[in-house]
Fold:
Amino acid sequence: MMLRKSVLISLFAMGCTGSSAEPFDAKVTWSIKDFETGTVGCPDAFPKIRVVAQGLDENGFETGRPFVETFDCAAGSATLTLYGEGTVEREVDGESKSEETTGRYVITVQNTGELGETVHGESLPYVVDIAEGKTTVTAPISPGGNYFLLGWRLENAAGEHPSCEALGVSDVEIRYRIAGTSDALTTDRFACASTHPPLTAPGEDITGFGVSSPLAALQTYEGQVIALDASGAVRGQTDTSFTVQPPGYAPYEITNVPVTVPINP
Structure:
C-alpha cells in the first residue's frame, strides 16, 4: 500500500438501526512513526484516527458501504462494532437500508486531521473474520513510507511445491539493500505460511506472503530470500531484486512474485 503525505478524501459515517446478524467487537490498535523523520506518536496537526471497515463477500470482493468510526489518536486503540453473517439494517443518509454481511471485513486505519479532512498516513489493509476468530488488528502507520508485497513458494528437487511443514521450513527472510550500495541490510522475517491478506493473491502456488518494512520510493533494492528451519539453519535461498515505485503507482509494489526458493534435500 503506497502511503501519501496528504490525501483529501470524504467518507460517509453510518449508524446501524437494527440487525439480524450478531454483532462482534473488533479490537484495533495503532502506532505512528514518521518514515522521513523517525518521529513517533500522533502529530499535533493530525489528532484523529479513522477506522474504515469495508465488508467483503464470499469471494473477497468489496460489498456494501463501509463502517467508519473516528477516535482520538492518543488513545492508541479502540473497539469497533461489526456484524457476523446475516442481514444488517443501516441508516444511510436518513434512510434505513438492508445489507447482507458475511462477517468478513478489510480494515484500514487512517491518521487524519481534526475533522477528517486530510489523511496524513494510513495503514495497510487487514482482514478480520468472525467465523475464523480473527477479530484483532495491529496497524502500524508510517507516513511517507512505501511497501512491497513479497510472495514465495518453496520448491523441492522434483519441482513440486509442498507445504512449509513438509519441507521443514519454519520462517522466510528477505535481506536487502539499495542496489549497488554497501548499506546495512534490512531484514524482514515472516512465518513460512504467513498469509497477511492482500486483496488479490500474488500468483499461483504461493506458499506464503508478507509485507515489507516501510521503504523509500524510486529505489531499486537487491538481496536474498532465505528459507529457515526451526533452529535458524538455512534450508534454501535465492537472489531477488525489486523497485519501489512512487506513491499512487499501485496498491502494492509487486516484483519477482512469486519468488521460488529451492529447498535443499
